[in-house]
């Protein structure tokens, strides 16, 4: 049996493999085997003020945002906790209380 890598986020040594992903049971971080070797570089994601964002951060919305497919609006000051950075046009996955799962653009949030 090959030794699995430690978690790149928290350093926990007892990770496991599920399908094509490595998973850390301590912090729930998921990554691909190519990310573990450093060949899959993730782009740098910054908020509206230029602060670097990372997985697990809390962000605040800086502009009223219409929710696509709904008549709801996310108001200024709404917080999204424990964000996850993803590739694509909307580079933040999060859950917002009262709205559920959302994808946001980093240009409309600030860290904190």
TrEMBL record:
Residue span, Protein YjdM N-terminal domain: 4-32
One Pfam entry name: Zn_Ribbon_YjdM
Protein YjdM C-terminal domain: residues covered: 45-111
Highest taxon listed in the record's lineage: Bacteria
InterPro entries xref list: YjdM (IPR004624), YjdM_C (IPR013988), YjdM_N (IPR013987)
SUPFAM superfamilies linked to this entry: Prokaryotic SH3-related domain, Zinc beta-ribbon
Family: Belongs to the YjdM family.
Name of the molecule in the record: Alkylphosphonate utilization protein
Organism listed in the record: Paenibacillus lycopersici
